[in-house]
Write a structure and sequence with these properties.
The complex is a heterodimer of chains A (224) and B (601).
Chain A lengths: L11 E6 L3 H12 L4 E7 L2 H9 L5 E5 L1 E2 L2 E2 H11 L4 E6 L5 H9 L3 E4 L4 H12 L7 H12 L9 H4 L2 H11 L4 H8 L5 H27 L6
Chain B lengths: L1 H17 L1 H4 L9 E3 L1 E5 L7 E4 L2 E3 L5 E10 L7 E9 L1 E6 L2 E5 L13 E7 L7 E10 L6 E3 L2 E5 H39 L4 H13 L14 H26 L6 H20 L4 H29 L4 H24 L10 H89 L3 H21 L6 H19 L2 E5 L11 H20 L5 E8 L4 E8 L11 H12 L3 E6 L5 E8 L7
Parallel strand pairs in B: 13-14
Antiparallel strand pairs in B: 1-12, 2-3, 2-5, 4-11, 5-10, 6-9, 6-11, 6-12, 7-8, 7-10, 14-15, 15-17, 16-17
Helix pairs in contact in B: 1-8, 3-4, 3-9, 4-5, 5-6, 5-7, 6-7, 7-8, 8-9, 9-10, 10-11, 10-12, 11-12, 12-13
Classes of the chains: A alpha/beta (224), B alpha+beta (601).
């Protein structure tokens, strides 16, 4: 499935995974109309999507979380395991749902609202490709709570993994500040805030993975 | 400093009281005939010598005869008496060769009674007009010096009060000392019974009980044989004095040397044995050994408590210091009296003994009071601790209860959120997609609005206390899309909003709906190009959220239920909503809320 590997800008190979038919059709329509990407497949179930995800043929996965035969995070993990360069984005009704954070921990770095119009969807994808991740005050708040919560285990705690700047950003967003307010307060450019956010997401994923490894070794599943 | 001064003053006062015999002059009988001199016959049988009274002679020198003459100008109308304020220790009074009285047993007591007073009636039929001669034969027991004061002749009325005063001072007072001694002994005994492990009480009791022997002289009237036992009683009573240093050591809080404990019992016992076997005469032992030993013990005890009081800062030692020092001074005085350096037959030690007894009583009561106070303090402390613990428990219980309620509410909220999220909102999103496909703009808009409103509700459910900025942040994230679609610019700044506490999901929903309504109105009716939302202090101790738009005046949408709803919601927040329309176009909505929101909305 090698396509347009040469050239200035390679087309973004997209996989859509959404079980609700009207929504899948709508997203399919929008993605097909997007000139910079190629919709590899639009799947309704996890089983349908997994063969595509195991290879290196997908650059971007857009997935719903609740699927008839599984969960979107499984698709994200499969993708990230086979192709660490690939990005994942979840479709959620609310951007502030805890399940979005679950997806982020599985490796997603962006999210979309289910009723996003075509402009919003394309903007969201392009932002993500530019290395920017969105964050809502609710998600920031959940992460902040986790930072302050009791240290779950010896593996590198999340609080230690984050830089002071990243922590400041999380706190600011959790308090309801806008990117602009935050950038001004921290003396950084407004455009760097979403870059930091993406780094935070990546650390969340790494932390989650090491916690899983620790937990598994603790249970005797893995011998370190 | 003041305290120290008070101590010095108290000590001086005690010293003054102790020295009373030397500076207090008892009144002389007024109107009575004073006999200032007597013809004294020498013990050796030499010629009688005219001598001024008072007169004394060394102990052990048997007896002396005194002849005193007085003249009567007429036969007295009332009965006359001879009054001898002080003599030591026994006197036989005769008038014109006829024996009138023998002061007898009363005067033979060792130590306890070192002097007596005498009042002898002079029978009228023996008195003659002109010269009368009274003979007084004074004898001693051979320990205290012999002594005779001036005598007086007068009526009962003139001499009676003086005699009674002397009787009180020389006899009754001494009996009171015994009574006091017994009383304190009983008190110490009780203390000893209830605190058998406290050695001080045991030694105090032993000291007081053996000290009773010193009062044997008071009982010579009971049986003539008692007189013979008096010296032995005095030797035995030395045990009490030897225990005084032991008591002083205990008061200082130190360990008592075994040698001292043994000596306190062995030495007096040895003296008694020596006297009983006749190896050494009892009188010699009394004067030569027991007396000086007693004085030595009192001096040692005084020195010990002085050291304890000032070096070791023992409060009780300070208490005992003054009585012991006075007792020691009195002991020195008495020894000096026996040695005839000072005149007068009165032994002071007996008069100062009560002071020491009082000190023991004070010590007991002080300990009693202190332990009661400690008990009270301990009680108060325990009560305080208990109250603290109870308060802590109540607080923890309340906290736990609140947390449990919170937990239940959180779980319920999460369940509700999950239901809405998975069910209703998914369907709404699906409807939006279908309406778009069918190009049914009305349905699509309604579905979008329903979805937005659902998000508002779900989002507000997740808001906790002091999280109003988070609620507003979520609103901004959703509104930004809405406004972007409508092409309206949004100026957002809530960084200056003061912290509002008491925020519940219901409160948050009220705030969000008011702001949302203001924005929706601006979009639908106001034709605004720019909307500004900011949070700030209201200048009166509250917080306010201001929504401004540059479209049509907000008030141009009258009669709508919207405004009424806003007012109702603001009232539930304990705040108010104010709307101003601007002539030039545009309007401002100001929502004011208190920093502490009401508990129930």
């Amino acid at each position: 499935m090698q396509t347009q590997a040469e050239g200035g800008t390679a087309a973004c190979r997209v996989l859509l995974l959404e079980d609700d038919e009207p929504l899948r059709q709508r997203f399919t329509r929008i993605l097909q109309a997007w000139p910079e990407g190629t919709l590899v497949a639009a799947c309704a179930t996890l089983a349908e999507a997994l063969p595509h995800l195991r290879g290196p043929g997908i650059d971007l996965l857009i997935t719903d979380l609740r699927l008839p035969d599984g969960h979107g995070t499984q698709a994200i993990r499969t993708l990230r395991a086979g192709n660490p360069q690939a990005e994942a984005m979840v479709i959620s009704v609310l951007a502030d749902d805890r399940s979005v954070l679950e997806a982020i921990e599985a490796g997603a770095t962006g999210y979309l609202l289910k009723d996003a119009d075509s402009i919003e969807l394309v903007e969201a994808i392009e932002e993500l490709r530019a290395g920017h991740s969105p964050i809502s005050s609710s998600i920031a708040r959940v992460i902040v709570r986790r930072l302050n919560g009791p240290a779950s285990a010896p593996p590198p705690p999340l609080a230690a993994a984050l830089t002071p700047r990243e922590t400041d950003i999380l706190w600011g967003i959790a308090k309801g500040f806008t990117y602009a307010e935050l950038a001004q307060q921290l003396g950084i450019s407004r455009q760097t805030v979403p870059v930091h956010v993406k780094n935070i997401y990546r650390k969340l994923e790494a932390n989650n993975r090491s916690e899983a490894v620790y937990e598994a070794s603790r249970l005797g599943l893995i011998r370190l | 400093m003041k305290r120290r001064l008070a101590w010095y003053l108290a000590a001086l006062l005690l010293l003054a009281v102790a020295a009373a015999p030397y500076w207090v002059q008892l009144p002389r009988p007024h109107g009575a005939l004073e006999l200032p001199s007597a013809l004294v016959d020498d013990a050796g049988g030499g010629p009688a010598v005219q001598t001024a009274l008072p007169h004394s002679w060394p102990r052990g020198a048997g007896e002396r005869g005194y002849r005193m003459d007085f003249w009567l100008s007429a036969v007295p109308a009332e009965p006359l008496y001879l009054f001898i304020p002080m003599l030591a220790q026994r006197a036989v009074v005769s008038l014109g060769g006829h024996q009138l009285a023998d002061t007898g047993n009363r005067s033979r007591m060792i130590g306890v009674t070192s002097g007596v007073a005498a009042l002898v009636a002079l029978p009228a039929d023996r008195l003659a007009v002109g010269r009368n001669s009274v003979d007084v034969r004074v004898s001693t027991l051979g320990i205290a010096p012999g002594y005779l004061s001036r005598a007086y002749v007068g009526t009962g009325e003139q001499l009676g009060p003086h005699y009674r005063l002397r009787l009180f001072l020389l006899e009754h007072l001494r009996q009171m000392v015994l009574a006091m001694h017994l009383l304190v002994t009983i008190a110490v005994f009780i203390a000893c019974v209830y605190r058998p492990r406290e050695p001080l009480y045991g030694w105090l009791l032993a000291m007081l009980v053996t000290g009773v022997a010193n009062f044997a002289g008071l009982f010579v009237d009971l049986h003539p044989r008692v007189t013979d036992l008096v010296p032995y009683a005095f030797l035995f009573g030395t045990m009490g004095s030897l225990m005084l240093p032991v008591v002083a050591v205990l008061i200082n809080g130190m360990r008592v040397p075994r040698l001292l404990q043994a000596a306190a019992v062995a030495v007096p016992a040895g003296l008694v044995v020596l006297a009983a076997t006749g190896a050494v005469p009892a009188a010699t032992l009394v004067v030569g050994v027991a007396g000086p030993l007693r004085l030595l013990c009192v001096l040692a005890a005084a020195g010990l408590v002085a050291w304890g009081a000032w070096s070791r800062r023992v409060q009780e030692a300070r208490l005992m210091f003054v009585p012991l020092v006075l007792l020691a001074l009195a002991g020195v005085h008495d020894v000096v009296v026996v040695g005839r350096v000072l005149p007068g037959p009165v032994f002071l030690a007996w008069y100062l003994r009560p002071l020491f007894l009082v000190a023991i009583a004070v010590l007991l009561m002080r300990r009693f009071g202190l332990s009661l106070r400690r008990l009270d303090d301990a009680n108060a402390h325990l009560q305080r601790r208990l109250a603290q613990r109870e308060a802590e428990l109540a607080r923890l219980h309340e906290e736990e209860r609140r947390e449990a309620t919170q937990r239940v509410r959180d779980e319920e909220r999460q369940r509700l959120t999950a239901d809405l999220h998975d069910g209703l909102s998914g369907h709404l999103a699906s409807i939006v997609a279908q309406a778009e496909r069918e190009r049914s703009a009305g349905i699509e808009r309604s579905a979008r609005e329903a979805l937005d409103d659902l998000r508002l509700v779900i989002h507000s459910l997740d808001i906790g206390d002091r999280e109003l900025p988070v609620a507003l942040g979520g609103l901004r994230e959703r509104m930004a899309r809405q406004l972007k679609r409508a092409g309206i610019a949004l100026d957002w700044s809530i960084a200056r909003l003061p912290e509002v506490s008491g925020v519940t999901p219901a409160h948050a929903l009220n705030v969000l709906r008011i702001v949302q309504e203001a924005v929706t109105n601006a979009i639908v009716h106001g034709r605004a190009a720019r909307i500004a939302i900011r949070g700030e202090p209201d200048g009166e101790g509250g917080a306010r959220i201001v929504v401004e738009n540059d479209g049509a005046p907000f008030a141009s949408h009258p009669g709508g239920r919207g405004l009424e709803n806003m007012r109702r919601r603001a009232a539930q927040l304990g705040g108010a909503v104010a709307i101003e329309a601007w002539e030039a176009g545009g309007a401002r909505l100001v929502l004011t809320v208190p920093l502490q929101l009401p508990h129930r909305s």
